């Protein structure tokens, strides 16, 4: 009866009383019909388990659930939805997806190193080259050595690609550190921070060296924007409770250095206040050195606008007082063997004292050296009876209340730098710092300020003696010694020191050395040997330097002009030595008749800067003044003045030509000022025509077009028309 599908549907529709459940009744009726037919086909009891299993396999049949006791809706709506079945089908297909062996071989290197997918920023050729390089690098140590070697060649981009690929299979934190350090040294702070953040995103966690490199790089680039804020953020992330790395005093010193170089004293004192008194994070010698240098730098650089001398002295007084209080902590830690005293720390404190406004601060530098280096004072302390026999300290910029004679007992200082003594037999012996060139310069400057020239010579002999400290003086020591000799007007001692063979072999003298030496002779101009000493210094300069120094020549010519005891032969000798010097200056200015000087072509000389060119022209003018003094005076007979007049005329023409060139380059305003400073060409009329040098063909007449093209006076038209009356 129900063999036709249409008949079966009509029967089911007649039984369906709920129109909203049409699909469910149709499904249940079909199931009931199938179950009835199965039961009629076999009435054996052995088929009961099979029927029960079929019923449990169809949980959507409510009649079977009630029959076997299953709870309704044993699966939730998501598991029964078409979307869930579609998702399971896709999961099954993904699990059954075959592996691409060829692609795996391309992405794997030697030793089955996983390199990840190719970065879209890399070309296939770059990917293949990095893959071949990693085939020979089997551990992080080899990768780090290779990265450091290639970064020295400038291959920053290539090494970033290699480290990114290697990060998929190994921890290459050291290689990342090398890249960050290289970018920091190249002043690429923003790029270094990008690499630092990318390193963390790729699962390469920064270590202690990473933070040290980042903070040290920020301290070396204080001119970059936002350096202090970046350093503070990095240090705070390091000090966070969930940080993998524990901060140490090395990181604290690095962030203090950043704040000091960025002139952020508020942030520096904020970090310094959090340093513990003891333990692994306690302050060391480097910490105190950074803070003392920061105090000194703030006193010199970070000065408010419109500050007077009195306000400056009091501000420096507060800074030095802060340094003195800090030094008491240094000495306490040194006594307890919690700190190793170093020369850098001693010099930092000494330089801060030299910045102070009180003469007692300058005098305490020698006590500081005695306390920390066991070098006895060679001059009595300020305020003692033995010191009264020495010259009085000149302190013109010191306020009256800061001078030694006006100090009361409450304001006197210096006990912080007294020499330490052993407290009993069980006290530990102190380890003193070893002096070097920085200490020698500091001691010489202190002796210069406290007016102790004899003690300065004794300190020099003690520190440079091969049997004691064997310090080999450098250029800074030599310059400081020359300043001290200049203060004492010791021009003969300057020449003697420069002529020593030890300085000629050990030092490479610079133009500043001869400027200081020549200024000593200018200061000692009342000495009848000062001009002779200056001539010897001029000869040493011509032997040591490839080109004559214009400022040194200017000082020498100035001494020849102002020398009160000069004779005619002295000026003639000075001009004789100035002749090759003037030729050297002409070569530097790329003018003159000499094509070569000293075996060099004038075309290959270095182009002078505008400031150096002005100095060279000023030196030539001062040489011209020496000719003037010799010619306009009666120091030599009149018949001997002719060659000097001719040479003076040549010098005048050269100076006028140089000034005219400078005026053409600078414009009309500079031309008016330059014409007022030129040598008067009328003075050349005293020279015979045969003695004059022929004017070059390429030279142009001086002045504007009106004066150069003017008609003779007899042919000129009158400015005013004749009267008709």
From TrEMBL:
Polar residues: compositionally biased ranges: 37-47
InterPro entries assigned to the protein according to its UniProt record, in alphabetical order: PPR_rpt, TPR-like_helical_dom_sf
Chain intervals for the UniProt region annotation (Disordered): 35-103, 394-414, 666-725
Keywords: Repeat
Keyword Repeat: yes
Sequence ranges of the PPR repeats: 172-206
Biased composition (Basic and acidic residues): 54-63, 90-103, 402-414
Keyword Repeat part of the UniProt annotation: yes
Pfam families hit by this protein: PPR_2 (PF13041)
General function of this protein: Regulates mitochondrial small subunit maturation by controlling 15S rRNA 5'-end processing. Localizes to the 5' precursor of the 15S rRNA in a position that is subsequently occupied by mS47 in the mature yeast mtSSU. Uses structure and sequence-specific RNA recognition, binding to a single-stranded region of the precursor and specifically recognizing bases -6 to -1. The exchange of Ccm1 for mS47 is coupled to the irreversible removal of precursor rRNA that is accompanied by conformational changes of the mitoribosomal proteins uS5m and mS26.
Family stated for the protein in its record: Belongs to the CCM1 family.
PANTHER family, A to Z: OS03G0856100 PROTEIN, OS12G0638900 PROTEIN
Subunit structure: Binds to mitochondrial small subunit 15S rRNA.
Protein name, UniProt field: Pentatricopeptide repeat protein-like protein
Species of origin: Karstenula rhodostoma CBS 690.94
Lineage: Eukaryota, Fungi, Dikarya, Ascomycota, Pezizomycotina
């Amino acid at each position: 009866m129900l063999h036709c599908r249409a008949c079966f549907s009509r029967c089911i529709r007649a039984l369906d009383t709920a129109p909203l459940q049409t699909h469910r009744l149709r499904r249940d009726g079909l199931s009931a019909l199938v179950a009835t037919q199965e039961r009629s086909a076999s009435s054996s009891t052995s088929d009961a388990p099979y029927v029960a299993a079929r019923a449990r396999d169809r949980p959507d049949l409510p009649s079977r659930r009630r029959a076997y006791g299953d709870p309704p809706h044993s699966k939730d709506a998501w598991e029964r939805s078409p979307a869930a079945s579609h998702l399971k089908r896709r999961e099954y297909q993904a699990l059954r997806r075959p592996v691409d062996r060829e692609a795996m071989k391309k992405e794997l290197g030697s030793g089955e190193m996983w390199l990840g997918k190719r970065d879209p920023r890399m070309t296939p050729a770059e990917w293949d080259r990095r893959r071949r390089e990693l085939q020979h690098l089997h551990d992080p140590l080899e990768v780090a050595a290779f990265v450091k070697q290639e970064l020295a060649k400038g291959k920053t981009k290539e090494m970033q690609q290699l480290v990114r690929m290697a990060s998929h299979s190994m921890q290459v934190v050291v290689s990342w550190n090398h890249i960050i350090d290289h970018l920091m040294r190249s002043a690429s702070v923003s790029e270094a921070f990008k690499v630092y953040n990318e390193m963390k995103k790729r699962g390469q966690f920064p270590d202690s060296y990473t933070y040290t490199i980042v903070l040290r790089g920020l301290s070396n680039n204080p001119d970059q924007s936002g350096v202090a804020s970046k350093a503070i953020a990095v240090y705070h992330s390091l000090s966070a409770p969930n940080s993998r790395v524990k901060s140490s005093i090395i990181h604290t010193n690095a962030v203090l250095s950043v704040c000091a170089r960025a002139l952020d004293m508020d942030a520096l004192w904020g970090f310094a206040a959090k340093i513990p008194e003891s333990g692994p994070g306690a302050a060391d010698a480097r910490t105190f050195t950074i803070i003392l240098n920061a105090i000194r730098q703030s006193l010199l650089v970070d000065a408010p606008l419109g500050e007077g001398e009195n306000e400056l002295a009091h501000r420096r007084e507060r800074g030095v007082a802060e340094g003195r209080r800090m030094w008491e902590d240094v000495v306490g830690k040194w006594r307890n063997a919690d700190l190793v005293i170093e020369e850098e720390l001693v010099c930092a404190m000494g330089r801060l004292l030299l910045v102070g406004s009180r003469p007692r601060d300058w005098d305490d530098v020698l006590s500081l050296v005695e306390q920390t280096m066991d070098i006895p004072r060679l001059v009595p302390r300020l305020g003692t009876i033995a010191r009264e026999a020495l010259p009085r300290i000149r302190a013109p910029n010191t306020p009256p209340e800061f001078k030694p004679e006006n100090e009361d007992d409450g304001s006197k200082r210096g006990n912080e730098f007294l020499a330490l003594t052993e407290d009993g037999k069980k006290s530990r012996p102190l380890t003193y710092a070893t002096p070097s060139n920085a200490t020698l310069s500091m001691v010489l400057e202190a002796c210069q300020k406290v007016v102790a020239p004899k003690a300065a010579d004794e300190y020099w002999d003690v520190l440079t003696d091969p049997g004691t400290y064997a310090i080999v003086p450098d250029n800074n020591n030599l310059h400081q010694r020359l300043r001290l000799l200049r203060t004492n007007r010791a021009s003969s001692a300057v020449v003697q020191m420069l002529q020593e063979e030890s300085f000629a072999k050990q030092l490479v003298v610079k133009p500043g050395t001869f400027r200081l030496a020549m200024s000593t002779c200018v200061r000692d101009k009342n000495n009848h040997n000062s001009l002779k000493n200056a001539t010897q210094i001029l000869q040493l300069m011509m032997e040591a330097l490839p080109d004559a120094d214009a400022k040194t020549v200017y000082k020498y010519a100035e001494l020849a002009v102002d020398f009160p005891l000069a004779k005619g032969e002295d000026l003639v000798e000075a001009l004789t030595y100035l002749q090759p010097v003037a030729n050297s200056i002409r070569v530097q200015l790329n003018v003159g008749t000499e094509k070569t000087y000293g075996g060099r072509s004038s075309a290959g000389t270095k182009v002078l800067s505008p400031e150096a060119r002005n100095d060279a022209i000023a030196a030539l003018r001062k040489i011209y003044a020496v000719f003037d003094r010799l010619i306009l005076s009666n120091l030599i007979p009149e018949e001997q003045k002719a060659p000097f007049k001719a040479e003076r005329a040549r010098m005048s023409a050269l100076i006028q030509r140089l000034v005219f060139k400078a005026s053409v380059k600078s414009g009309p305003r500079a031309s008016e000022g330059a014409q007022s400073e030129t040598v008067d060409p009328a003075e050349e009329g005293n020279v015979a025509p045969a003695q004059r040098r022929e004017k070059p063909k390429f030279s142009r007449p001086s002045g504007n077009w009106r004066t150069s093209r003017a008609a003779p006076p007899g042919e000129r038209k009158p400015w005013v028309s004749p009267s008709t009356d």
